[in-house]
Structure formats: C-alpha cells, structure tokens
Amino acid sequence: MLRSFSFLAGTLLLAAAPVVAGTPEGEAKLAEALEGRIAGEPVDCINLRTVRSSEVIKDTAIIYKSGATLYVNRPAAGAESLDKWDVLVTRTLSSRLCDVDVVYLRDRGTNMQTGFVLLGDFVPYRRVD
Known about the structure:
5-stranded antiparallel beta sheet; 10 strands; 19% helix
C-alpha cells in the first residue's frame, strides 16, 4: 500500500509541475501547424469520439484533430519522450481523454514501450474568420 501511495504522490507532483517548452525545432513545427489559428480557453477533457487523428510534435506536444478544431496538449510530464514515430496508446474508462490520463508510447517496429506522458490541459485552436 505504501508503494502505491508513493507512486500516486509522485505522479501528482509531476502532474502539478509547470509545463516546459519543447525543443526549438518542436516549437517551430507546432507554430507551423497552428498558423492562422487562435487559441481558446483550455479544457480538461476532449471527446475521443470526435477525434479523427493525432499528430506528435517531437519533444513538445500532441495535436488531436477534431473537426475544424485542433486541440494541443503539452504534457505535464514526459514530453521529452515524444517521437513522431511512436504509437500513442491510451487506456480510458470513458469516451473522453482528460488531463489526468496517461499516454503510453510504443515503437512502431518493435511494439516495445518507449515511454509515457502525463497529459496536461487541451488548448483548442480554431481558424480565424
């Protein structure tokens, strides 16, 4: 029980850590993907049923595409593990992906786990009219 509590406490501390900017290359790629869009108010969860695809920005963020909206998630911890060649594996108990969820990263070729990220808030970006 003490081990479970220690893991939970460590996870909560990591989740409360400030979000750190990614690499300069990752930030440039993210800026390119968001060009012509403005940020909305962050949300805690997104509906997975409306997500059509996702894109990993190396060492920086995950972009979830939902209709005309791009939701950017800058992980609270583990962003340095993000690689565009990894497969995102998420286990949720509902049809929503939330800022308390963990995303596991697996190598496409070997199917071995390469890391994980603790999600942060989802920032919606919409096109400017």
